[in-house]
Design a protein that fits this description.
This protein has a single domain, classed as Aldolase class I (TIM Barrel). It contains twelve helices and ten strands. Helix 1 packs parallel to helix 5 and helix 1 packs parallel to helix 11. The radius of gyration is 21 Å and the shape is globular.
Amino acid sequence: MVFIISEIGINHNGSLEIAKKLIDISSAAGCDAVKFQKRTVEKVYTKEILDSPRESPWGKTTREQKNGLEFSIKDFQKINTYCKSKKIPWHVSCWDINSQLEMRQFKTKFNKVASAMLTHEKLLKVIAEEEKHTFISTGMSSIKEIENAVKIFRKQNCPFELMHSHSAYPMSVEEANLKLIPFLGKKFRCDVGYSGHEAAAYLVTLPAVVLGATSIERHITLDRTMYGSDQAASLEPPGLIRMVKDIRMVTGILGDGKKKIWDSEVPAMKKLRQVFV
């Protein structure tokens, strides 16, 4: 069974109403979980970057833009309540230690390491201490960097799953390199999923499942033309619904790999093999 994660990320644009709509869509589509992102803006970005000019719905600096996209703890309390009412688990990828510690109060079932944070060893150690099943994205990372992250989680006996990923938004399908999925699984002796950022609908997702991806994570949005750096690499509601349906179908088509004689074959067997009697 492929575990399907609907990545809301920051595509809510700081609006709880948009977040709730995306949770509704994810639940109705049959996703197994939804994911958000959490940052302590002043710790993740330098003052120089935050003071730099950037036009956005929230102001004219990068600081105003970043703060506008962030949910507060009170907002996440509401998200926690709402997800429980919809019976869909949620979790977060935190971009700094302070955020990770803050989010512990929600006792979510999963953790996520964003590709950008894979080399942040102090953060990885804090995450691994929680011993929750952790999805680790591997975009823009070398094998050595992935190896270092794996060592941290294995040392802590924290269950994890790598996620093959590419950190361009959107990703060119020519750079998908899905053969890395079985390669990473064999090299690190672990499950490997796929976190996709392609603009070409969910074309890449299905061969990822065929190649053994144990989880799929895709960004979702109400409308790809909305403000935001991740919107163009996201699925709109109809695309998400079709993707989940097709993944479930492909999983069924692949089967369990065990040879058997199906009940539906028996009539043909009785009829067609009479010639040998």
